Amino acid sequence: MGNQQERSLVVVDLAWLGGMIDGEGNLSLHVREKSKRCKTVRLYPRLQITNGDPILIREVGRVWSNSFVPVYVCKRPSGCIGSMVQGMKRCQKALNVITPYLRGKRYQATLLLWFINSRLSRDGDHAPYTEDEVWCFKELRRLNYRNGNRNQKWDNWANGILRGHTPDSAILEQMKIWSTHDGNAVIT
What is the dihedral of CA 163, 169, 170, 171, to 10 degrees? Predict the structure, then answer.
């Protein structure tokens, strides 16, 4: 197979994976609570696809693997199987690869990538969270739990830090441009 055909197959695979994430995926910040060892709340980026079909999850793993993104596969008590990318650098790599192929969850991907880049530009897990980072966490929760079925404890934690904070206008502008591949469409 020639290089052009190989690139075509990669694009098709990534477009398929983007559709899987749009339909079955979840882009979120996982909360790790305070403990004796860790005295602060930690937020970890997570990109997850859950499905009951092991063949689909195996294919998800293959596409990620071809893109050099390490993935973890886990089985849920419900019988569903999850393919998960977790951690700052892994999610950053995965989001840089897949975001152009997302449609419905591109805004969440942009938020998560902004959060990751913000954390990595400072001191990762050890720096205190900025108000913009906490706003990003809260916005992702709002988008992921539109039906209101969420733990209020973490909303209260975020509200206690934010206290009416509005994110930097540059962040808002960056978050508005997301709906097309070329970045021309703006959500108002």
Answer: 40
Query: What tokens were used for 119?
Result: 């954390």
Listing DSSP states for 109-151 in one string gives HHHHHHHHHHHHHTTGGGSPPPHHHHHHHHHHHHHHTTTS-S-
What is the domain range of residue 158?
Answer: 3-176
Tokens of 7: 């690139």
CATH of the domain at 37: 3.10.28.10
SS3 77: coil
> What does the block give as tokens for 136?
């990003």
pLDDT score for 169: 62
Q: What element of type H or E holds 32?
A: strand 25-32
- Comparing CA positions, the residue from 70, 68, 52, 45 lying closest to residue 120 is 45
- pTM (predicted TM-score): 0.78
Residue 124 to residue 117: CA distance in whole angstroms = 9
Residue 27 lies in a domain: yes
d(CA 187, CA 178): 8
Please give the angle made by the CA atoms of 47, 116 and 146, to the nearest 5 degrees: 50
Per-residue pLDDT tens for 70-82?
888 888 777 778 8
